[in-house]
Amino acid sequence: MSYDTQVPPAAPHRAMRNGLGTAALILGIIGTLSGLVPFFFWLAGILGLIALILGLVGKGRVKRGEADNKGVALTGALLGLAALILSVVGAVITFTAVSDAVDEIDKAIKDSAPKDPAAQDPAAQDPAAKNLADGDTSVYDDDLKVTVSDPKAYKPSEFAAGHTEGNKAYQVTVVIENGGKEKFDATLVTLTGRAGTNGVAAEQIFDEKVGAGFQGTVLPGKKATVTVAFDTPKDAKNLTVEVNPGLDYNASQWELKLG
Description:
The protein is an alpha+beta fold. The chain has helices at about 20-35, 40-65, 70-110, 115-120, 120-125; strands at about 130, 135-140, 145-150, 150-155, 170-180, 185, 190-195, 200, 205, 215-220, 225-230, 240-245, 250-255. The strands form three sheets. Strands 2, 3, 4, 5, 9 and 11 form a six-stranded antiparallel beta sheet that branches. It has a five-stranded mixed beta sheet with strand order 1-13-12-7-8, with no helix packed on it. The chain has a two-stranded antiparallel ribbon with strand order 6-10. A hairpin with a 4-residue loop joins strand 2 and strand 3. The longest helix has about 45 residues, at about 70-110. It is rod-shaped and about 150 Å long. About 30% of the residues are buried.
């Protein structure tokens, strides 16, 4: 009596899915090498990120038994991480170098540019650094403009204050133009005068015609005008008029010739 012994067929061989681990290793190597050159930080960053993702997915396949190249996948992931780190370092180095280069170019352009005479002339920078003549305008940084006219002989009234018998009186017109964007407080403007070679004080004359001074505010784009008279010695040949627009300004001076 014979028995047939049947041997069960062998289980089919399962193919390993090692492609992701291998790809991670290759991309990790290329990314790391790219990261050694700072200018290629962008390439190192892209390849490093892809290699890190593929390496982690490939390692997951190994744990599920779908792949058997654990060392390759792990190495690819680590190289991807290294490439990412090198990409950050390379970006910092590149941007710093570019910034330094731009600064050097700007410096070279400024050094080679023609010098502005006004930048080296204190009188051009500060309107108070030189004496002005009649009709000249003193312009301040905020576009405030002050102009003093040519002096003219003035006859004070009988009851004028500030006039001494035997002296001469001269009147000047002072114009303030607000070329800025903010209103200007004209009440802070002060006017003083000196006359003659010895620079004696020239008293300001007050009567019903002159001496009121500036009042109120001057709006942007507007002007304010006052007429001021000064009492000078009879033999004075010049009159210095000083106008100070306010606490935040330097006074400007006009050297005026008397007729």
